[in-house]
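Re: the 219-residue chain
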Amino acid sequence: MASGFYLLPWRSLLQMASAMSDKKRQRGVAAPHSEGESGAFVTIAKVTKTQGRKGEVAALLLTDFPERFATRKRVFALDPRDRRTELALEDHWFHKGGVVLKFAGVDSISQAETLIGSEIQIPQAERAEPAGDSVYVSDLVGCVVCDAGREIGRIENVQFGSGEAPLLVVKGAKEILIPFAAEFIESLDVEHKRLAMKLPAGLLELEAPMRDRKRNEKD
């Protein structure tokens, strides 16, 4: 699982991509499995271990807005069996790049252990509004990509690597990678899940065989 809570500014993309930390690149950017048309929650952290003796847990931060923990009173824990439980957040503090969380009613190490592996979530309606021309990765996932009016496929994931532009993993007749670069984007309709692009001539024909060759080399 990885967060669906990262932002991509689709008109100032290169600036954001170059500023992105290595930690976020390593975590990946796939949308959480509980989010989408069938769900209405967004993952903002994931519990990794217990912390302290009074029920505290340490969690990996999966949000670009950690300061919002200060105003959150209610969150939800989605356990590895896909069972979701509402929790009252009593306290939090940041520690070694992550966050320590204390929930009401979780007052011992044994109780805290039951939360290990759980995704800490909020209702999608409560997530921060993206500023300017930013868009959530989880909103990109599932969008139909069109090039000059021709449907190419649907976005399954977004990859960050060493390049300046993130890569859209688009599944159509074949799986291809398309740079999410400002100069290629004509319009983005998040509500109707549609991304219109104007790609350079030959890019799609070039990308498909290159990706197939890399797969063969791994095999």
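DSSP finds five helices and 15 strands in the chain.
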